[in-house]
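tool=predict chain=A
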Amino acid sequence: MFTKTKAILGKIENKYVRWSIAVICSSGLLAAILVLGLYLYTFSLGPPSLASSQNTIYYSANGQVIGEENSVENRYWVPLDDISDTLIEATLLTEDRNFYEHDGFDIKRIFGAAIKDIRSMSMVQGASTITQQYARNLYLSYEKTWKRKLKEAFYALRLEMFYSKDKILEGYLNTIYYGHGAYGIEAASRYYFDKSADELTLAEASMLTGIPKGPTYYSPLRNFDNAKERQQQILTSLYKLDVISKEQAEAALQTKLAFAGDKERTVKTVAPYFQDVVVKELAIVLNKTIEEIRSGGYQVYTTLDINKQKDLEGSIKANFPKDTELQVGAVAMEPKTGAIVSMVGGRNYEESQFNRSTQAARMPGSSFKPFLYYAALENGFTATTTLMSKPTNFELANGTVYQPSNYNGYYADKPITLAQALALSDNIYAVKTNLFVSPETLVKTARKFGIKSKLDPYASLALGTASVTVREMVTGYSTLANGGRKVEPYTIEKVTDAKGNVLYKRKQKKEKQVLDPKKAFILANLMTGMFDESLNGYMRVTGATIADQLSKNYAGKSGTTKTDSWMVGFSPSLVTGVWTGYDQNIPITKVKEQGIAKQVWASYMEKAHEDIPFKAFKVPDGVVGRYIDPASGKLATPYCKNQRLMYFEKGTEPTEYCNLHTKETSDEKVDQPTNNEPTKVKDSFFNRILNWFR
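tool=predict ok
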């Protein structure tokens, strides 16, 4: 070829002509090489990513939508098959009639637009194909510069090289802007007409087709006359191209459209505090930023039980006085899996997004004691181990004297059993136990239960002086409820992308056994004692005020400090923790506010278990049950008025029978010697400070 060209040029006598022809041929050859190189380079880059911002949607455990991220921009992704055929045809004929014939560029339109732009010395005329517009939506800004147009052409070439026409058209229709924060035809269809894109009528489809040319200028909600004129142009084009009949065009033009207007279109948010926790967990499991999560188009399937969430919120509303600023944090969890089924982080999310169930660290008071008594069981204690309950000064290793006190200054002035100490929440018994097993052991034991907050190994730790979260306490109690296996709380079961591809799925595995199942069962049984008035002693059991509301056998422990009120308890299938208090650590002084946590817990647990087949705690092998007289801590006789079934590891159960109650004392209705009457001790100032803890 080059030889023939040289021969032809040699015959031309005018050297200027020869040089002109040579330049033209060389330029053509160079252009061909450049084009070939561009194609090869483009091909070497591989297919460009089609990822774009989409609304992230959250689902409950049964698949109901509970919320979605759609702040400023609304985005959804729907397959091409789920978009109205009329709208697709209208869009193609309006935006790019040769879409299925060209390779990303409409050369005729480009040259026509370029001539007009050169004449005006500006970028005023557009000739972008659907492929070019999709490339701009995905990768570029909307500035009108030659540099941006070149980049747009480059990305369009890559899109055409690696993706089918249908794929490109689907992407375009899901990303084009329709105004009012609606990106994509599905978002636009929901926004303007409150329906899906496959339900659009001809009148609606032709109206929406006209908007992307000028989302503000052609918005029917802002400039109806402009939008109507644009709709008429589109219907006329469809008629002239034989896509629709004249009658159809006229009927569509005359149809009065029912716009959704500016009403609230977002899904009503359910459990907003819970959803905030989901977002944070999602960022971890997908290794994404919060911003990427919110616009990633993820379908997030959570653990939330909508009915239980409503029950929890209803219990809080029913039991809180309207004239109080008292706050609340509550979590309910399945102990076998760690799935959080309901959560409340405050009384009003709009006023405060601070989550008091996961972010607020508060002193748990006596609700911390079960961790102590598990350590005691590991160190030889049983349900009937007795210690003296009376005012006691504890001289600590550093030489200081610690003077804890019981609630309201009441003491038994005699030995009481562990069972009774737990049910009555005796502080003297707890501190003695802590010093016996050692505060360091208590810290290690609490770690086994999943408590991760800072714990100082002090004598007072037995009374819950460390600060923990509601979620931590529920996690710890779940370890007891499931027989001693480790629990990791979670809110996400599965995550998919907008097209249903699974990105994450939680694997359920048998967790590590961290507690002795026999001791875990024994402790759980002891914790049912707070509702059993057969354990009444120098005062009533701490759950007496709600015992008559409970129809099932729950285990639990309350906790009270000067500024905090707790109730945490469980059945084999559900663990719930409730905290109440003031954000500013103001003391809870009103009597009606001091028992709210227990009331919320009781009403919620009863409501939640209406739909749960109730199961009793299963007695492990190696554990035996005996009826015990609570006053003596010995085997009950027919003359013991109060008897309670208590459990022991085989070989540690009592063998002696109660001698406090005989036929004579039974006839006289005397339960215990008269010299065992409770004593109330007048507190010193220091004791009143320590009396915060119960």
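The longest strand covers residues 327-333. The chain has three domains: 2-45, 71-254, 365-690.
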